[in-house]
């Protein structure tokens, strides 16, 4: 990503300035929020999206508690990302539960994913 601004965080392998971080979060949130992505029922894609959304929420929290100077609009965006990702991941996890019930034979990778995500939880 070509950007001259200072990177404040990273998601996956990529570094992001504040604006690009928010844009990336909203992109993921919109994907998670779209009925199409839910209807597809692609287990691996769903797990990957959940992982990224958890990561974005974690980063948003870190930025909001960190030393970077933020104006009120910036804070509002971080809060929006946190709350929205909470909504979206809850819905996706419920959806994933139903997908699992239908495809009980394909759960081998689940423990690994849950274990990785568990460390990033807020509580
Ligand atoms: Zn940028």
How would you describe this protein?
This protein is mainly alpha-helical and about 120 residues long. The chain has a domain at about 15-100. Helix content is about 70%, strand content about 5%. It has helices at about 20-35, 35-40, 45-65, 70-100, 110-120; strands spanning about 10, 15. Strands 1-2 form a two-stranded antiparallel sheet. The longest helix has about 30 residues, at about 70-100. It is elongated. It binds zinc ion. Zinc ion binds next to helix 1.
Topology of this protein?
Elements: E1 9-11, E2 14-16, H1 18-33, H2 35-40, H3 43-65, H4 72-102, H5 110-118
Antiparallel strand pairs: 1-2
How many β-strand runs?
Answer: 2
SSE string, helix = H, strand = E?
Answer: EEHHHHH
The bound ligands are: zinc ion
- The total count of helices amounts to 5
* Helix fraction bin: 55-70%
What is the molecular shape? elongated
Q: Structural class from helices and strands?
A: mainly alpha
Strand proportion? under 5%
Cα radius of gyration in angstroms: 15 Å
List the keywords:
5 helices, 2 strands, 123 residues, two-stranded antiparallel ribbon, mainly alpha, 5% strand, binds zinc ion
